Amino acid sequence: MKRVYVNEEWCLGCHLCEYNCAFANSGETDMAKALKGKPIFPRIRVEGDESINFAVSCRHCKDPLCVKSCISGALSVEDGVIRIDRNKCVGCLTCILVCPYGALSQDADGAMQKCELCLTNSCGEPACVKGCPNGAILYEER
Q1: How far apart are CA 128 and CA 126, in angstroms?
Q2: Rounded CA gap, 26 and 22, in Å?
Q3: With 25 labelled, which of 34, 61, 123, 125 sits at a CA distance of 20 to 30 A?
């Protein structure tokens, strides 16, 4: 299965992956309308400092603790991709607590969100990969 991988040696820390992710999952067709003057809620997050930067996103684990711990059944695995049913999420934050990678976060409504590889927003490949100017984020099978 293809997954998102990050080469931290190439990451500039520009946060463009975050903006592209937030836009791709906004449902809008115009980036300025979707993001300008609003808080963004990307499903990928850049961490680091002046010496090293890296993007954190869901690794779609083979044995996901987040799915096992979800008390409402909102998290499931479909074809190797961990998905969230926002209608079932109660915002208990248990999945955030158990994820060893820190890949889940809350959206504007308090429901959980995470990378779902842009499979539901018709990007073709993850928007973070398309929007990375330095090629630090890859979508490939290893």
Answers
A1: 5
A2: 6
A3: 61
Beta bridge partners of 138: 5
Q: How many residues does the chain have?
A: 142
User: What pLDDT, in 10s, does the model give residues 21-45?
Assistant: 999 999 899 999 999 999 999 999 9
Helix (H) or strand (E) holding 69, with range, is helix 65-69
pTM above 0.85, yes or no: yes
Three-state secondary structure call for residue 95 = helix
Residue 103 backbone phi and psi in degrees, to 5 = -90, -5
d(CA 62, CA 68): 12
* Side chain identity at residue 131, one-letter code: G
- In DSSP notation, 5-29 reads EE-TTT-----HHHHHHHHHTT--S
3-class DSSP state for residue 98?
Answer: helix
